[in-house]
Amino acid sequence: MLETLLRILNDGWGWMFLRGAAMTLFISVLGMALGVLIGVTGASIKLNGPRWLSGLVSVYTTITRSIPELLIIYLLFFGSIHSVSQLGDFLQLEELINRWFPAAVGILAIGLVAGSYSVEVFRGALQAIPTGQIEAAKAIGMSRWQRLWRVVIPQMTWFALPGCNNVWQTALKDTALIALVGLVEIMRAAQLGAAAMREPLAMYLIAGFLFFIIGIGSQALFVIAEKYAGRGMRAVA
Amino acid sequence: ATSYKIGTEGGYPPWSMVDAAGNVTGFDADVGAALCKKLDADCQFVVQAFDSLIPSLSANRFDLIISGMSYTPERAKRINFSLPYAVEDAIFILKADTPAIKADSAESIYTDLAGKTIGVQGGTTHGAFLAKVAPKVNIKDYETLDQMQIDLDSGRLDGTFADLTSQSRFLKQMNTTDYALTETVIKGSSDPETLGYGIAVGIHKDNADLKARVDAALCELIEDGTIKSASEKWFDIDIANYDACK
Amino acid sequence: MMSWDEFSYTIGVLWKGFGLTLYIGLWGIALSLLLGVGLALMRLSNQRVLRAVAFSYSTAFRGTPLLVQLFLLYYGVGMISWVKQVPFLWWLFSDGTRTAILAIALNSGAYVGEVFRGGFQAVPKGQIEAAQAIGMSAWQCFKRVRLPLAIRQALPAYSNEIVIAIKGTSLASTIAVLELTGYARRIMSQNYAIVETFVIAGLLYLAINFSLLAVIHLIERQLHLKASS
Amino acid sequence: MTVPTDSATCAIQVHNIHKSFGDLPVLKGISFQAQQGDVLSIIGASGSGKSTLLRCINHLVVPDQGEIHIGQDVLRSHAKRDGTMVSSDPKRLEKVRARLGMVFQNFNLWSHRTVLQNVIEGPIQVKKIAKAQASEYALHLLDKVGLAHKATAYPSELSGGQQQRVAIARALAMDPEVMLFDEPTSALDPEMVGEVLRVIRQLAEEGRTMILVTHEMQFAREVSNHAIFMHNGLCEEAGTPAALFDHPQSTRLQQFLQPLA
Amino acid sequence: MTVPTDSATCAIQVHNIHKSFGDLPVLKGISFQAQQGDVLSIIGASGSGKSTLLRCINHLVVPDQGEIHIGQDVLRSHAKRDGTMVSSDPKRLEKVRARLGMVFQNFNLWSHRTVLQNVIEGPIQVKKIAKAQASEYALHLLDKVGLAHKATAYPSELSGGQQQRVAIARALAMDPEVMLFDEPTSALDPEMVGEVLRVIRQLAEEGRTMILVTHEMQFAREVSNHAIFMHNGLCEEAGTPAALFDHPQSTRLQQFLQPLA
Ligand SMILES: Nc1ncnc2c1ncn2[C@@H]1O[C@H](COP(=O)(O)OP(=O)(O)OP(=O)(O)O)[C@@H](O)[C@H]1O
Ligand SMILES: Nc1ncnc2c1ncn2[C@@H]1O[C@H](COP(=O)(O)OP(=O)(O)OP(=O)(O)O)[C@@H](O)[C@H]1O
Ligand SMILES: [Mg+2]
Ligand SMILES: [Mg+2]
């Protein structure tokens, strides 16, 4: 087994996997960032926004969460591929667009999916903030933004972190689906490697190991984040 | 010279594989290289998941598909196909003591299989074919051949139905006497409507000119033995379709 | 585009997988809820061993893809020879449907556990103290105070795990269980109307998830308490 | 008060209680006892540990050392391996707590239950009283504190004083032998304070024991027959309210009462 | 008090405020005004709407009707299409609020910030004062309320009275023109009450205006130069504390003050 692993890594697949891991991280981190942005905005709209807008957010979260992620990537990719390639022709940026279009679709898709989950996570977290905490901020004349940054987000973070962690772990797995648009992330690297080297078991073991490393690493970051965000909040009486 | 981009799956041995440096190898790669030489073109492979090959071709992300793709009427609604340059026969692996192993006609195999559970690879033509000719068979679809083969190993299946090439390779790997290939091979030409007309090159619908040139080039490749030698190199047998150009 | 005949044929075939998807999904959701609440309580218990077990479980099961877990259970455990000797285990692992339910319950449970941990953590300490002070047992305090207050915070995030579990059932097709996605694949291999078939399957998933989200929404409304003080 | 008495009538006995939060010693060995029908006031500066002491009595805060005797029952604590203190007999603790009523300084009403539900929760769940009966008694108590009309409101819809009165009703509904009041009149107007005074006196006449943390000396004087002045984690001075308030011995107590003079 | 005066020195003017919660009318047209340096006490039964009135002044509760004048600024409200009331000029509201200090009845300290951070938050964020300077002033204020040693503690680690004192320091740190105190001494011992009394007097001397809800008549009498008795959503009686407490005119007020006699 060990021999096989060494042979695989020597044969250049080590690099392939590293590039795959970088791609996985690149897409999932940016996707998650987009998702958190959508999540916080969507949750505030659902709780405080005008009715028509919060209705729109509900439609988005319901549909995006309900249909398979692969379908979303499919629709995003093949739904836009024609117009994007025409746009590329028109702007003479074919190369650039061909090169970055898949990654953009990947990030957008992961972001939209993670965003739809995040909306609900943040909505629950926002509701858990005692109203008095926000009133105290209003009473000293804080602006909407200041209240958001100084009170709402710090307190919400503590309530939202467990749910966010889930969204992140899900987003990380979902990046495997972007192989569809031609990006080589960890799982696709394993699949290609399995085909080329005829060692499926070893290849998927390496892929699983990489996912697990990323998973554990991010888990550790979340533990630290919870410790930080929980200062003073843990024993709120 | 003109240049073409060729879409291929990359993860489907021995048809299409990529090595760590990104070079495409396999039967498809050899056919593709030979074809480009004949067309006097520079070619570049684009590796992409099988499911997205046809839509990507439609969107002009590449010019040709060479990826062990069977020519079926349904696919032909979306893209053009070249002549089928190769045909593959299909075959069953069954328990060695099943009478169907020795059956001398396809029909008697089908009747024999009634009520049995047979694995096929999802997304291939074999499932649809089997469902049509042997409706009493219990069909299980697998994502990959590997999974299907593991399940046969673990005793959840009575048999599998797939390409002759992959079946014989698998049986060799299994190294067992419990299972065997049926003596009767299911000819690809027996039901082209369902089993497909054979392996062909995918071309964009609007590009009739390219289709004509590819067809001509493929005929030459079949005639001069290039396909045959590539086939024997990768499959140990000759799957070149000598009827294609007649 | 699809013709009407193709469309109704597709719907007809997909419908055959619909029931099985629902069956796997609902069982998975029910079991994962139990497992999840249990894990959440373990993570918050003051027993260090329980905490460590629950933490490792949630890290392992969330850190690896459901597909891998499913394969390990189905192909891995199914290959162990003594499993075939134990009637209950072989009953469980010989059948793809049951193995799929188990995999979804184990996987989703890890996520549900985190969601409920967040919920339990958000319960103000004073609310629990008030229950303890009148002599409620730990179980009564859990049932009457902690759980209702935790659910209220956790419900929105929990709805995520429900839809993810339903969507997760589609992986059952990879161990040859013919549910919705399994049939969809089968049709795609016949008609190559990939996007259309996929969209129709997606709509069926949407129908299931939409109904479940509506149920959650109703519960949320029902539980919706006047703003906390 | 701290004089040993016949333990048969001794309702509550607090023995050498110690408690630190981290490095901060809050209680450094407090002892006292109270007979049936006693009303004991605990006074002391803000932050002197009065609430902590009250919460030690029903082990909401588990003491680092010391024992609590409630009637015939004893509550003890021990350290776990990681150093945190736990109550030694959790089953008995539940039983004892059901006999101890408590009104929290910050009320701690259950936010997911209406006023009435807050009050009947204990009787129904812990004392297994029928709902109809519990509700009847609860409404009677709510009426007594002037809140019958708020029975279906949620705590978040109540004013501060209303919340405090619900908290008092909730504790009374359990019909406890010993009542622990943590500043039960802090949010109440003079009228309501008079009402609470009457309730406490009546409870005392019924033979119940009350321990009362308060900052209102006037109230303490009128309602209690014993008083303790806490300082520096210890019981600095004890006696009848009259003795304590009119003739404080320690300089610290003199200084504490100064602003009232 | 309700007599019109020269508006130049009029620090705050409350004009015909109405507020209902659902069907329940709480304020039915309250008006009053206070000059610079005035200390105005609001008394009334629990649930009579004192906190609501105070919260209407800085539009934490948006009134259904009526205006608030703070110096030259006016706060008005209007109904949105769905019937909820909103403040008419949110930008101005923020500016006005920065000039109004408030001590909440239940403190509302930010649980994610330490004591010191709670106090410097407003000066730094809203008044854009340098952190060093804000901290220095904050520590001075904390020292004044006897809590300098708790600067790094979190609110959940404080006793009730300590939390209340932090809340007072937090409001003072904003250096407000007008202070709104909602029962600022409810959790404080006599010593601390005396300290708060001193602080309020000093603020009044500096020309600041204070509005004070309290249940402690003695405190109201000592600290304020005007008093209002609220009843049934209206201002039932107003005057100097001496007049109100010693010679109550309305029978309701007489009854209210009865228990103290
Ligand atoms: N959010 C709310 N929803 C419904 N009713 C409310 C709400 N807030 C307050 N009330 C009601 O309005 C009335 C006035 O409340 P408010 O808090 O102003 O009283 P208060 O005079 O401050 O009383 P206390 O002295 O007890 O603090 C009370 O009867 C209360 O029940
Ligand atoms: N959870 C905690 N962690 C750390 N310190 C605490 C904690 N709870 C209380 N303290 C500290 O213990 C001391 C006593 O608190 P306690 O609440 O018993 O005071 P108190 O006498 O009730 O005061 P008050 O009259 O203000 O309510 C205070 O100095 C407080 O800061
Ligand atoms: Mg206290
Ligand atoms: Mg009030």
From TrEMBL, chain A:
Record's bilayer topology term: Multi-pass membrane protein
Stretches assigned to the ABC transmembrane type-1 domain: 21-222
Keyword terms, alphabetized: Cell inner membrane, Cell membrane, Membrane, Transmembrane, Transmembrane helix, Transport
Signal peptide: none
Localization: Cell inner membrane; Cell membrane
Keyword Cell inner membrane in record: yes
Membrane-spanning residues: 20-40, 52-77, 97-119, 176-196, 202-224
Domain of life assignment: Bacteria
InterPro entries (alphabetical): AA_ABC_transptr_permease_3TM, ABC_transp_permease_HisMQ, MetI-like, MetI-like_sf
Pfam families associated with the record: BPD_transp_1
Gene3D superfamilies named in the record: MetI-like
PROSITE patterns hit by this protein: ABC_TM1
Family: Belongs to the binding-protein-dependent transport system permease family. HisMQ subfamily.
Full protein name: Nopaline ABC transporter permease NocQ
Automatic annotation (TrEMBL), chain C:
Annotated transmembrane regions: 20-42, 63-83, 162-181, 193-219
Protein's name in the database: ABC transporter permease
ABC transmembrane type-1 domain boundaries: 18-216
NCBIfam families (UniProt xref): HEQRo_perm_3TM
Primary location group: membrane
Classification of source organism: Bacteria, Pseudomonadati, Pseudomonadota, Betaproteobacteria, Burkholderiales
Keyword tRNA-binding: no
UniProt-listed CDD domains: TM_PBP2
Keyword rRNA-binding applies: no
Automatic annotation (TrEMBL), chains D, E:
Source organism, top-level taxon: Bacteria
Location(s), subcellular: Cell membrane
Molecular function terms, GO-annotated: ATP binding
Keywords from the UniProt entry: ATP-binding, Cell membrane, Membrane, Nucleotide-binding, Transport
Membrane topology: Peripheral membrane protein
Family: Belongs to the ABC transporter superfamily.
Record domain ABC transporter: where: 12-257
Keyword Transport: yes
Descriptive protein name: ABC transporter ATP-binding protein
Database matches in InterPro entries: AAA+_ATPase, ABC_ATPase_HisP-typ, ABC_transporter-like_ATP-bd, ABC_transporter-like_CS, MetN_ABC_transporter-like, P-loop_NTPase
Phylogenetic placement of the source organism: Bacteria, Pseudomonadati, Pseudomonadota, Betaproteobacteria, Burkholderiales
Principal localisation: membrane
